[in-house]
From TrEMBL:
InterPro entries: AAA+_ATPase (IPR003593), ABC_transporter-like_ATP-bd (IPR003439), ABC_transporter-like_CS (IPR017871), ABC_transporter_ATP-bind (IPR050166), P-loop_NTPase (IPR027417). PANTHER family: ALIPHATIC SULFONATES IMPORT ATP-BINDING PROTEIN SSUB, TAURINE IMPORT ATP-BINDING PROTEIN-RELATED. Pfam families: ABC_tran (PF00005). Residues 17-231 form the ABC transporter domain. One of its GO terms (molecular function) is ATP binding. The keyword 4Fe-4S does not apply. This is ABC transporter ATP-binding protein.
Length: 244
């Protein structure tokens, strides 16, 4: 029988995330198979892997959205998640969307501050349908930030954006992470994005973390730096080998 041992840890802990022996099966088939993962407080980790290898499943488990698991999952109480689709409620103005689901009666100013932080201070009273794709994604980020997370979970947040908007959004996430100091787990298909943003890149395969690569490059990172190209090429080679 599956056990649920999803417990919060405090930010003073040595780890923002501690996962041990995590298994998640669908129809008797383990998609995640005795996985182990540690993320330090304030660390930026990117998760890569072929389509269907279980990245989103892992992220949903860390977010507390899937508790039908075996193993140990320790995560901070304050955590927030942003998905590829911004998931804004069309009948609520942007600032109300940002506060959605917060307990009590949160002040509108809280939403306005978060929207300011993502460069959307001028659209607080807009309706979601009037936002561009990039703006909607920023609103979704503001909704995550307003929770003051110790752990920010991002599931391909830039996947649906055009190339230019994507670059701006990546830069924004890098800045927010440095300012906020929260741990981040970013699920992405984009090796360059992973090397650009992460302290550590994990490759997932066969239900486990099959490889990890530390990214010891100064920030802000320069994609024309030969060491950047080397790290990207190495990760692409490994991903290719796993897909073969
Ligand atoms: N609710 C579910 N019921 C049955 N199978 C599921 C369910 N959710 C996920 N799966 C299966 O688990 C596997 C992993 O799915 P998951 O979405 O985690 O992969 P992923 O690595 O995030 O893929 P992608 O990169 O394409 O988004 C897939 O084979 C998927 O079909």
């Amino acid at each position: 029988m599956a056990t649920d041992v999803h417990r919060p840890v405090t930010t003073k802990a040595a780890h923002a995330v501690r996962v041990e022996g995590l298994t998640r099966s669908f129809d008797g088939r383990p998609v995640i198979d005795r996985l182990r993962l540690d993320i330090r407080p304030g660390e930026f980790v990117a998760l890569l892997g072929r389509s269907g290898c279980g990245k989103s499943t892992l992220l949903r488990i860390l977010a507390g959205l899937d508790r039908d698991i075996e193993g140990t999952v320790l995560v901070p109480r304050r955590k927030a998640v942003a998905f590829q689709a911004p998931r804004l409620m069309p009948w609520k103005r942007v600032w109300r969307n940002v506060l959605l689901g917060l307990p009590g009666k949160p002040e509108r100013a809280l939403a306005e501050r978060a929207l300011d932080e993502v460069g959307l201070g001028h659209r607080t009273t807009a309706w979601p349908k009037t936002l561009s794709g990039g703006e909607a994604q920023r609103a979704s980020l503001a909704r995550a930030l307003v929770r003051e997370p110790d752990l920010l979970l991002l599931d391909e947040p830039f996947g649906a954006l055009d190339a230019l908007t994507r670059i701006t959004a990546q830069r924004l996430v890098g800045e927010l992470w440095q300012r906020r100091g929260c741990a981040v787990l970013l699920v992405t298909h984009d090796v360059e994005e992973a090397v650009l943003l992460a302290d550590r890149v994990l490759l997932m395969d066969d239900g486990v973390i099959a490889h990890e690569q530390r990214i010891d490059l100064d920030r802000p990172r320069d994609i024309t730096d030969p060491r950047f190209a080397e790290l990207r090429a190495g990760l692409l080679r490994r991903l290719g080998a796993e897909a073969a």
